[in-house]
């Protein structure tokens, strides 16, 4: 597996993502030839807006990712949910970029060497210094294209969920302001790029699997994270999609287990029998 993609999605990918975000494709279709020009203008505007909220991202080359050991699966459909995790590592006070890049490497090593996965499991990682890193290979190009790269972070739901791992353990402690700000921006970007409604799409790991992840404190912040993402989108003129009703593949809200394994990097079930990849 080569690792040659760039951190910046190309223009065509951005436009494809924007079509989904704005619903402009359907609009153009309904209007026919007469509506094409204005629909195209709307699409270009929407793509610029989504691009404007995208956080600065450190792609895999920046953190020295190992190549994936198997083929990366990309689905030509957007994810339905954005799942918030904590990394179950220490609440470090090292907020440097160097520390953030090391964190990405250590998570990947754990996922590949201990879990036996083909790559790091989550699609994105955010450090306590607020640095945002690409996780699983091909994530950035997939978001830009409105596609879903399948990871390993939420058991049995990896085909429909994109995952963000947030550095730290949030059972009792709060995330840093820098992390929270980057997380809100990342959520706004993903909701815009995929045409998701923040209020129905943003969920915690514990909403799907029996785990405490992302910790009581970060989990209780979900309403404010959703508000923050919606506010950011509105400020940038990004259309907010209709709220989606949970279907058969929606969250099941299992009880939080009392005796969950307690070790670094473990934040609950990440792969299940229904998952397509590892
Ligand atoms: Zn988790």
Your description of this structure?
This protein has 278 residues and is of the alpha/beta class. It has a single domain (1-278), classed as Lysozyme-like, CATH 3.40.80. It is 39% helix and 10% strand. The protein has ten helices and eight strands. A six-stranded mixed sheet has the order 1-5-4-7-3-8, with helices on both faces. A hairpin with a 5-residue loop joins strand 4 and strand 5. Helix 1 (11-22) packs across helix 6, helix 3 (36-53) packs antiparallel against helix 7 (177-194) and helix 7 crosses helix 10. The longest helix is centred in the first third of the chain and has 18 residues, at 36-53. The two termini are 16 Å apart. Mean pLDDT is 88; it is low at 1-35. Bound molecules: zinc ion.
Features:
Lysozyme-like, 39% helix, single chain, binds zinc ion, alpha/beta, globular, 10% strand, 278 residues, two-stranded antiparallel sheet
